[in-house]
Write a structure and sequence with these properties.
The complex is a heterodimer. In chain A, helix 2 runs antiparallel to helix 3 and helix 3 packs antiparallel against helix 4. Chain A is an all-alpha fold. Chain A has one domain: Helix Hairpins, CATH 1.10.287.3510. Chain A is elongated. The longest helix of chain A has 31 residues. Chain A contains four helices and no strands. By secondary structure, chain B is mainly α. Chain B contains 25 helices and two strands. At the A-B interface, helix 2 of A face helix 25 of B.
């Protein structure tokens, strides 16, 4: 029990603001990656990055507020993300088989 | 006779011609010419027989009312489908079915070999039905149905030879000019309902005569009814359609445009004579319109060269004389002239038809002449018709015209003089047409001359019967000074408001003497010009003097209407079409279309298939929403 409290205290050595800024930076990198990169795999990675930045934020607040529900959310998010990755990568493989490319702008036929 | 049998008969009278029309409609292509003509005539003739029985029983019953069913029943408005037969309508029914059957028989010969033979008889039957409906109607609305129906049949029959575009134009002209009168009739019905709360003719009349009651719209009602009558009966200013209506086959001109339909206006006024007698101003308008039309149309007829046009203007002129009599309050005299006119004008038209038939379609009197040698029967019947319309005693026209003139003298000698003048015009133009057609040298073209022939008996027999009627028709209203008993006047007394005119017998003799000698004088004058001098109307109109130019151009009435009404109307239509319709309305509708094209043309750019673009838009949107949350 003491060790656990110690861990909390140790985590609280780093101020909350730092965690928040780190998360914002990670999330922004993810957003920019999604918006600017054209390689589908990188876009995928960027999405994961965004998800994990949110996870980190949730866990941080969970620790700082002594509330476990934040950690429960994170598990759900991880499960969903894993499922999404499985489906997304499968689609990516199929797309590559069809168009021999992972360029995100190659599939732009669905328009007016 | 039993009342319900009589009611059945009154339903059958208009029902039989309608049945004839329906049968024609169903079996149009399947029956031969002979059967078609025979059975069409049969229906009308049966209706005539039934009309005779009705006429006979009216004598002791006074009137027969037949209520079929309640037609329109809403709120205060209650219009039954009902017939009323009284003295006036029973005589009209006899006239319509009697003259109608004769003209049906005649048409079998006249229309022989025409492509539209069956169609022609179908229309004739339909016309008889509507005309009977008009005179038998118990209320204004049913009368209006008949009124419109005869207009429709008139249109169908004027444009009977529809391949000719000119004929179609004439038909449309007749229909459109009639519409003006019809509009007046509709407004009159509105006013009647507003004033009296009913549209049943008898109720309106009994309501109007309640002592001490004040009806402010009565003047308007009678004036509007008169305008309606001017449309149907071709009076100034709506008369120009009737001469053009001669485009139809000649039996049609005789039946519809001389004997029956055009007298509907006169019938309308006599039917409502109680209302008219209460509005002296309207009576003055009718009188002036009538006499002006009589002289105006008579003077135009003097210079026409188409035999049917002469008779058409003569009809307008005679109808004008009838309106003149109506305006004087001499309803019985007007109705008497209506009957005799129906006889002799139908006779003259059918005689003219016989001539046209014999000459294979030639209608120009300049290309006739000397025909009495080739068409003896036609010549004699035409001669009788001529004497009747010229008012030579003892022919029917003499008594009827004399009745009108005496009524006019009773009002003012000046009016008598005007009436006499119109009569003299009649004498002159009729003598002119008669002499140029039947006497003098033959001017018939050589090709036609070879085939010239008298008409078959199927045409001449009705002519002979009609000539007997034209000769003896005067008997029905023989004045006292000829030891007659003015039967018609007495017969119509229950429905008329006029007081009998007690003219001095010596005066009557003098007036008759003057008119008869004037007839003789003018006839001699015409004889001098057209036989002794042998004058034939010139081919070209350019060498004529101003007056004859004016007359042969029909006072330029058509041109004036064209310039004053038709052309401005076209201009307005063109304005509405080019500016209002094409620019504004179409512009607005097309503008909306163009606007949505414009908007969607730009809006579709957002859907460009570029995933980065979508994601960017999504991020932007999310950012925007977050920003809004921060703000508020």
């Amino acid at each position: 029990m003491n060790e656990l409290i110690n861990l909390k205290d140790q985590l609280r050595i780093i101020p909350l603001e730092h965690y928040v800024f780190l998360c914002i930076i990670l999330f922004s990198i993810g957003v920019m990656g999604v918006l600017l990169r054209r390689n589908m795999i990188i876009v995928f990675l960027s999405i994961e990055l965004m998800l994990n930045s949110i996870n980190l934020l949730a866990v941080t607040f969970s620790v700082y507020h002594n509330d476990a529900s934040g950690q429960a959310f994170v598990f759900f998010v991880m499960v969903v993300a894993a499922a999404e990755v499985a489906v997304g990568l499968a689609m990516l493989v199929l797309i590559f088989r069809n168009i021999k490319s992972v360029d995100i702008n190659a599939l732009n036929h669905l328009k007016w | 006779m039993e009342n319900n049998i009589l009611q059945l008969i009154t339903i059958l009278i208009p029902g039989l011609p309608l049945l004839g029309f329906i049968l024609h409609y169903i079996f149009n292509d399947k029956i031969s010419e002979k059967i078609s003509g025979m059975h069409a005539t049969l229906w009308v003739f049966l209706a005539f027989i039934l009309s005779c029985t009705v006429f006979y029983s009216i004598g002791d019953k006074g009137q027969i009312q037949t209520h079929l069913f309640s037609w329109i029943n809403t709120g205060d408005l209650n219009i039954p489908m009902a017939f009323i037969i009284d003295q006036l309508s029973s005589i009209m029914m006899l006239l319509i079915t009697g003259v109608g059957s004769l003209i049906h028989i005649y048409s079998i010969g006249y229309m022989h070999g025409d492509k539209g033979f069956n169609r022609f008889f179908a229309y004739l039957n339909l016309f008889i039905f509507f005309m009977l409906l008009l005179v038998m109607a118990d209320n204004y609305v049913l009368m209006f149905v008949g009124w419109e129906g005869v207009g429709l049949c008139s249109w169908l029959l004027i444009g009977f030879w529809y391949q000719n575009q000119e004929y179609n134009k004439a038909a449309n002209k007749a229909f459109i000019m009639n519409r003006i009168g019809d509009l007046a009739m509709i407004i009159a019905m509105f006013l009647i309902f507003n004033q009296f709360g009913t549209l049943i003719i008898q109720d309106v009349i009994s309501e109007a005569t309640v002592p001490g009651s004040l009806h402010i719209h009565l003047g308007g009602i009678t004036l509007l009814l008169f305008i309606a009558a001017t449309g149907k009966s071709a009076q100034i200013p709506l008369f120009t359609w009737l001469p053009d209506a001669m485009a139809g086959p000649t039996p049609v001109s005789a039946l519809i445009h001389a004997a029956t339909m055009v007298t509907a206006g006169i019938y309308l006024i006599i039917r409502n004579n109680v209302l008219f007698s209460m509005t002296p101003d309207t009576m003055t308008v009718i009188m002036v319109t009538g006499i002006v039309t009589a002289i105006f149309a008579g003077s135009i007829a003097v210079k026409q060269n188409d035999i049917k046009k002469i008779l058409a203007y003569s009809t307008v002129s005679q109808l004008g004389l009838m309106f003149f009599a109506l305006g004087l309050g001499a309803y019985a005299a007007a109705f008497f002239h209506l009957i005799t006119h129906a006889f002799f004008k139908a006779l003259l038209f059918l005689g003219a038809g016989s001539i046209i038939h014999g000459l294979h379609g030639e209608q120009d009197i300049r290309k006739m002449g000397g025909l009495h040698r080739y068409m003896k029967t036609t010549h004699w019947v035409y001669f009788i018709g001529l004497l009747a319309i010229m008012a030579v005693p003892p022919f029917s026209g003499f008594f009827s015209k004399d009745g009108i003139l005496i009524a006019a003298y009773h009002k003012s000698p000046l009016l008598w003089g005007l009436g006499l003048a119109s009569g003299m015009l009649t004498v002159f133009y009729m003598m002119r047409s008669y002499l140029l057609v039947f006497h003098g040298d033959s001017r018939v073209e050589k090709d036609t001359m070879k085939h010239i022939h008298e008409s078959p008996p199927v045409m001449t027999v009705p002519l002979i019967l009609l000539s007997v009627l034209a000769l003896l028709g005067g008997i029905i209203n023989l004045p006292h000074i000829f030891h007659g008993n003015t039967w018609l006047q007495h017969y119509l007394t229950p429905i008329l408001t006029e007081g009998s005119i007690h003219a001095d017998i010596a005066l009557e003799y003098i007036l008759m003497g003057i008119s008869v000698s004037a007839v003789a004088l003018v006839s001699y004058f015409a004889y001098r010009i057209y036989i002794v001098k042998g004058a034939v109307p010139s081919e070209n109109n350019e060498t004529q003097g101003f007056l004859s130019q004016l007359l042969s151009s029909r006072y330029y009435v058509d041109e004036i209407y064209q310039a004053v009404i038709v052309q401005p109307f076209y201009k307005i239509s063109a304005f509405f079409y080019n500016i209002l319709d094409l620019k504004i309305i179409d512009g607005a509708v097309n503008g909306l279309g163009k606007l949505s094209f414009f908007i969607s043309g730009h809006a579709k750019e957002t859907q460009n298939g570029n995933i980065s673009y979508y994601l960017f838009a999504m991020a932007l949107g999310m950012g925007g929403i977050l920003f809004l949350f921060l703000l508020f």
